[in-house]
Design brief:
CATH topology of chain B: Jelly Rolls
Oligomer: heterodimer
Shape of chain B: globular
Largest sheet of chain B: 6 strands, antiparallel
CATH class of chain B: Mainly Beta
Largest sheet of chain A: 10 strands, mixed
Shape of chain A: globular
Number of helices of chain B: 2
CATH superfamily of the largest domain in chain A: Alpha/Beta hydrolase fold, catalytic domain
Number of strands of chain B: 12
CATH architecture of chain B: Sandwich
Distance between the termini of chain B: 16 Å
Strand content of chain A: 25-35%
Radius of gyration of chain B: 18 Å
Largest interface: A-B, 28 and 29 residues
CATH class of the largest domain in chain A: Alpha Beta
Number of helices of chain A: 12
Strand content of chain B: 35-45%
Structural class of chain A: alpha+beta
Helix content of chain B: under 10%
Radius of gyration of chain A: 24 Å
């Protein structure tokens, strides 16, 4: 539950070596930092609760490193953040003035909370506030009131706090020198958290909103869940809820959760979502930016890649860096990351990230310490397990190669517009996103063996011959799908899979003793709700039986399909319960009824393709 | 115990007309006999969790309400399936399943208050196979003289499952699943009345299977209840 916040904390409890580091850090915090709590006034009179940890020694002037959060700057009162201060342990020991702030309307701050506060480029009065102005006003206060500062400020944050880091960038306070949006929530209709390409991410948001829209208690120190959802098997639970309107039954949100209602009400890319797309405001950016994201991030992979892209395109020349590693949501913030799923990365990747990238970035821009030898893009290539450095991202020299989903399950055969494969998609029996039974989202689903899906009649699989040499793909992955349905709406999920050879993978991390022979390891997947195929603003019904085309991106990829492996693509029309079920008719999904969910026969034509950006062979 | 519309299972006979449930059985995507990926036949499949099968579109699921008392079933189990198929042969797998309560624990613990309840209390919601058996439809009238089905015509497939001696406990449910493959435990049926041992790969075709549950054609499973 509450994935956007709690997961990060869990990483502090990973390994014994990490534990001892944590104890050392706790002792260091007690010995070296003083804490104060202030209500800092904004220009409109609203006061924001801010916890400030100042180095006890005054030998040098220190910069500020600030995180603004909707998840609380706890602990409140005299207690210290014993589990850590700042983005990593090295920065803690290098000493900064660490600042945590509850954003407007959350926890102990005054004012009203707004989901993904819309940025206002033009502010006409002191009543016109946004996250940029709140950050600005906070910094003004800090520079004047906290002694011994060096006049420089950095901001960072993961996930929702990542959004607040991005949101300080337009019209940034001139003292802001370095900002690191990490897995930042960026565009919640197109690719992050709430919707992906118009398909609603049911399970994540149901859990999250239950906490996020709970009642503030203990004078703002805590939130009480809106309701108690009891289940140990998410698939059965969400299927049992039925049509999504029933999430507002008395047992659940009961119509009372504002943000949940907003999510459901705004089921097209309307002004609500456009106002919350921070990308359009990333112009004329001055601070150096370090964007960080994970290849196994189920929430904000899109946000990381597209925040970087938006700054590159709209503020050319800005010091804007990208780091993408094989991490889950925020996993770079823990002390250790050596393996995930069946991947063994061979080394602790967080040591490299924290030591060589994050610490150097902030020290260089905030303390004039060390060198800035960061690559434009530092990207971990899965499959070959190595960091790679690029002067341009995505790599300019990638050769797009189209692979057709052709007849007889062959990937990369000849295109044929007349022939097709078909399946019946039944909303009563949606394709699970993961094998097995889980209460919470199984994070490993993004790299899980897909044989459980390949065995189903409602999943189509296409695979290449065995590769005779390594094939490296780096950059944006595109799908171009020609299909028809007997219904008037459909979801299309495209999954790109690395099929291991019959000999398995000698280097695999396999504590669960999985059968690695011919393992179908998921590399990248994305969903598209096809009524948005021509426009996210104005959905259009499918015409039953008539071929339609849908083109979409599967984010980006940096992966080597090794010699002896195969590339597989799977196509299906449900991905449950991470994505809500499509009734498969063109209707108002948030208000439709259980009886509106209908079976549909989907035909996938053999001139459908994926395009892979090939960078090496 | 009668199969009913809406996935229900109960002691009383269905009263409606033209009631059936249907699925398409595709020999290219047979229903696995067990969850997961294994080299060798598992022994545990005979008591395995059938949720992986419930979630498939080619498996029919019928279940009772929650029992308010224990129900002990001892003896022979007979499946009597009224079916029509779109081809000339099909297999019928009938599985008798004990569905555990969602919140099953042995110490009155609120499992939902625990972290990872599905790992700590894996029997919550478990669909435990009690008995499963297969019948190759062409032998429905005689093992000596197999007969093709007439596509679309309702016929009876009646067979015995191995006996059971099992107590479905208070708070549990009985579930019946019906499917037309059980792979690779059982070879695939080409779903046409051809010689299976000499036929070609291309002879394996999809079949639309209807299982009836109305007044005129009531499918049921006979359970010997011990009182």
């Amino acid at each position: 539950m509450k994935k956007r916040s709690v997961i990060v904390l869990c990483f502090f409890f990973v390994a014994l070596s990490a534990m001892s580091q944590r104890f050392a850090d706790s002792a260091f915090i007690v010995d070296n930092y003083l804490k104060m709590e202030k209500m800092i006034p904004m220009r409109d009179g609203v006061k924001l609760f801010t916890a400030i940890y100042v180095p006890r020694d005054q030998q040098e002037k220190y910069p500020f490193l600030m995180q603004r959060t909707p998840y609380s700057c706890a602990p409140y009162g005299d207690k210290l953040r014993f589990w850590g201060l700042g983005p990593n342990s090295a920065l803690l020991h290098d000493k900064y003035i660490f600042v945590y702030q509850d954003v407007r309307g959350r926890y102990k701050s005054e004012g009203d909370f707004d989901e993904m506060t819309p940025a206002k480029d033009i502010k006409k009065s002191k009543k016109d506030v946004d996250e940029s102005s709140d950050t600005f006003d906070t910094i003004e206060w800090l520079l004047k009131n906290i002694k011994n500062n060096n006049g420089k400020v950095g901001l960072y944050g993961i996930s929702y706090p990542g959004f607040y880091a991005t949101a300080c960038l337009p019209d940034a306070h001139p003292a802001i020198m370095a900002v690191s949006p990490q897995a930042p929530v960026t565009d919640e209709f197109i690719g992050d958290d709430a919707y992906h390409n118009g398909a609603f991410f049911l399970m994540d948001n149901f859990d999250f909103t239950n906490y996020f829209q709970g009642t503030r208690i203990d004078s703002g120190r805590n939130y009480q869940d809106a309701f108690e959802a009891k289940y140990a098997d998410a698939y059965t639970f969400y299927l049992g809820i039925g049509a999504i309107r029933h999430t507002n039954d008395a047992a659940y949100f009961n119509g009372k959760a504002r943000i949940w209602n907003e999510y459901l009400q705004h089921d097209t890319y309307d002004d609500y979502w456009k106002a919350r797309n921070i990308r359009t405001h990333l112009k004329n950016i001055k601070p150096a930016v370090l964007v960080v994201g994970g290849w196994f991030d189920a929430e904000d992979m899109f946000g990381a890649l597209h925040t970087y892209e938006a700054i590159e395109k709209q503020t050319p020349g800005n010091k804007n860096f990208l780091v993408m590693g094989p991490w889950t949501h925020g996993a770079w913030s823990g002390p250790e990351w050596k393996h995930f799923g069946t991947h063994d990365f061979g080394a602790n990747l967080n040591e490299y990230f924290n030591g060589e990238i994050e610490t150097k970035f902030f020290n260089y821009y905030l303390k004039d310490k060390g060198e800035n030898n960061l690559s434009e893009a530092t990207v971990f290539e899965t499959g070959s397990n190595q960091w790679k450095h690029y002067p341009v991202w995505p790599p300019a020299d990638a050769a797009p190669e189209k692979l057709y989903l052709s007849a007889k399950g062959k990937l990369g055969g000849t295109a044929a517009a007349q022939s097709y494969d078909e399946y019946v998609s039944d909303p009563q029996k949606p394709v699970p996103y993961t094998s097995g039974v889980y209460a919470e989202r199984n994070d490993e689903y993004l790299t899980e063996d897909q044989r459980f899906a390949a065995m189903r009649p409602d999943v189509l699989s296409y695979q290449t011959d065995t590769l005779t040499q390594d094939l490296t793909v780096t950059g944006r992955l595109k799908a171009d799908i020609f299909f028809s349905s007997t219904g008037t709406d459909a979801d299309i999920i495209v999954k790109v899979i690395d099929v291991l050879p019959a000999t398995g993978d000698a280097g695999a991390y396999n504590p669960k003793n999985q059968q690695m022979t011919n393992f179908q390891r998921l590399v990248r997947a994305e969903v598209f709700r096809t009524k948005f195929r021509n426009s996210y603003e104005k959905p259009e019904p499918l015409i039953p039986g008539q071929v339609a085309e849908v083109k979409f991106d599967l984010n980006e990829i940096a992966h080597t399909f090794k010699k002896g492996h195969r590339i597989m693509v799977q196509v299906q029309s449900s991905w449950f319960p991470i994505v809500d079920r499509n009734p498969q008719q063109f209707t108002d999904i948030p208000s439709c009824r259980d009886a509106d969910f209908q079976k549909a026969t989907i035909r996938l034509y053999h001139h459908s393709s994926i395009t892979m950006p090939v960078t090496g062979r | 115990m009668y199969l009913k519309a809406g996935g229900k299972l109960s002691w009383d006979k269905p009263s409606g007309q033209d009631g059936f449930s249907e699925y398409t059985s595709d020999p290219a995507k047979p229903v696995p006999y067990d969850d997961g990926v294994q080299f060798n036949r598992t022994r545990t499949y005979m008591t395995g969790d059938q949720r992986f099968a419930s979630r498939r579109p080619d498996v029919l699921v019928f279940q009772t309400d929650t029992f308010t008392d224990n129900l002990t079933v001892t003896g022979n189990v007979v499946a009597n399936i009224l079916t029509s198929i779109s081809t000339t042969d099909a297999d019928f797998v009938v599985k008798v399943i004990d569905v555990f309560p969602d919140n099953l624990s042995y110490n009155d613990i609120d499992i939902y208050a625990e972290k990872d309840p599905e790992k700590l209390y894996p029997m919550g919601g478990y669909q435990m196979l009690v008995r499963g058996e297969i019948f190759r439809g062409r032998y429905r009238n005689s093992y000596e003289n197999p007969e093709p089905f007439t596509p679309g015509k309702i016929e009876t497939v009646k067979f015995e499952l191995p006996p059971i001696a099992h107590c479905f406990k208070k708070g549990h449910r009985i579930m019946i699943q019906i499917q037309s493959s059980w792979f690779p435990l059982v070879d695939r049926n080409p779903q046409q009345f051809v010689n299976i041992y000499t036929c070609d790969e291309k002879d394996f075709i999809r079949s639309d299977i209807k299982v009836y549950h109305d007044a005129a054609s009531a499918s049921y499973v006979l359970l010997p209840v011990l009182k």
